[in-house]
Design a protein that fits this description.
Rossmann fold, four-stranded parallel β-sheet, 44% helix, globular, FMN, metal-binding
Length: 443
């Protein structure tokens, strides 16, 4: 059985500094564990271009769910040389149901995030950075504010960082509690004090972002990978992942649901879902069996037991018919009715729609209405076919942003694997029709 504390710097660049008592690692202890050495090396010994190239060569992908290559995003920032003002924004608006990895990092290692942001800001020519934090993460806000005060006291915020010409300011901003703020342009609008709706792309934030200036938006876990890459290099980072995976480094992955040991672990890309479920989560609780699972949060397609041996990474999970997403898997047990579960998810996504485009604003409530009827066994013939049609109408390229396409992924996959449970929702109609026919025949 793997122990979360049997960690080392070579194989667990994110978690090896964590304390056994689960308390945060504050500045002095973080420095004793090589904290801010990577930042010192980057700012005093490397040029911004060298850092961007290093991150590009490492193969680091965004850890927020989309998996976009970080080096490409950083390179796009440097292609716009028309403005001297530019910004870095950390996306800490972690509202994906079933996902809590960023909260875990910020509560236990707030300085790892700050060091990653310090390095990224220097590499991108940014002098002012923001952390956009989910409103409900109040304890995280307290910890981050303390960590920001600590590094300010030693001169890592302000003028001439490490006696260089690099100036750096960092601000914490808490959102108002909207799921759509996880989309980077909606986040930027919210940070500006505007309505949190997505923007047209292009132009991309790397060219026209916060207050019209070039802006890079990176996820918490993504930024936390930067210090390790700077300190140990590309070869080390690529070799951490399993050989059966094309992705580099480690990933915070986990399992929640009716499992004996729900949690989050830092594992190499390519670890199979079965390994995580059986070796780390210790299997399903007594009396429960696995019916389905979602690889990376509530907006990813359901997979079945037949997919447990698929390596957990972006390409392999996509090939199996789902998305890797955040890597935080959700186990669905045999007692769960899939219609009820999907109805619950679609209610959440419907409520969290920003209402900007018609397919999402009107389509998701329509889906919820149909699912409620099926859940209550009041469905009518054609309802399931209508759900299929709505899945196509709200699919990729049909809506303003990716909210609706993500929202219908669990519905599409539930219809694919558990269609019989949806069909049973039309039982009353057929029963009434049968009774009517019998009455007619009798009379």
């Amino acid at each position: 059985m793997s122990n979360i504390y049997n960690l080392n710097v070579e194989n667990n660049p994110l978690m090896w500094r964590m304390r056994r008592d689960k308390k945060p690692v504050w500045l002095r202890e973080y420095q004793d564990k090589n904290g801010y050495k990577a930042a010192h090396k980057a700012i005093t010994c490397m040029s911004p271009k060298e850092i961007v190239e290093l991150v590009s060569n490492s193969g680091l992908r965004g850890r927020g769910g989309g998996g976009f290559f970080t080096g490409i995003k950083w390179s796009m920032m440097w292609k716009n040389k028309l403005s001297c003002s530019r910004y870095l924004v950390c996306n800490a608006d972690e509202m994906e149901p079933g996902t809590y990895k960023d909260r875990f990092l910020m509560e236990r290692l707030p300085h790892l995030l700050l060091e990653g942001m310090l390095i990224a800001s220097y590499a991108l020519g940014v002098s002012r950075a923001y952390i956009f934090l989910r409103y409900e993460y109040m304890l995280v806000a307290e910890y981050l504010n303390r960590a920001i005060s600590e590094i300010k006291s030693i001169g890592l915020i302000g003028k001439n960082i490490f006696n260089s010409e690099f100036d750096f300011e960092l601000f914490l901003h808490t959102g108002a509690g909207r799921y759509i703020c996880g989309e980077e342009t909606a986040l930027i609008n919210a940070l500006e004090g505007r309505r949190a709706v997505p923007r047209f792309k292009p132009p991309f934030p790397s060219h026209v972002g916060l207050w019209g200036k070039p802006t890079c938006v990176n996820n918490v876990e993504t930024l936390c990978n930067i210090p390790g890459i700077i300190e140990h290099g590309v070869t080390w980072y690529k070799n951490i992942s399993a050989k059966k995976s094309n992705d580099s480094g480690t990933k915070l992955m986990g399992f929640s649901g009716k499992v004996k040991n729900p949690g989050v672990w830092e594992l190499p890309f390519g670890t199979t879902a079965r390994e995580i479920l059986e070796d780390y989560a210790q299997g399903m609780c007594t009396g429960f069996t696995l019916k389905a699972w979602q690889p990376g949060g509530a907006s990813t397609d359901f997979l079945t037991q037949d997919h447990l041996d698929v390596p957990m990474d972006f390409e392999n999970i996509a090939a199996s018919g789902s998305r890797f997403g955040t890597g935080m898997a959700i186990a669905i047990d045999n007692t769960v009715n899939m219609v009820s579960l999907v109805r619950n998810l679609e209610e959440f996504f419907s409520r969290e729609s920003c209402g900007w485009c018609t397919p999402c604003r009107d389509g998701l409530p329509w889906i919820v209405k149909l699912l409620i009827s099926l859940e209550n066994k009041d469905g009518r013939p054609g309802d399931i076919e209508l759900l299929d049609k709505l899945c196509r109408t709200l699919g990729p390229g049909r809506t303003f942003c990716a909210h609706a396409p993500g929202a219908i992924e669990p519905l599409k996959s539930a219809l694919r694997y558990f269609r019989n449970e949806f069909e049973s929702g039309i039982y009353k109609f057929y029963q009434q029709e049968t009774n009517y026919i019998r009455c007619v025949q009798i009379h």
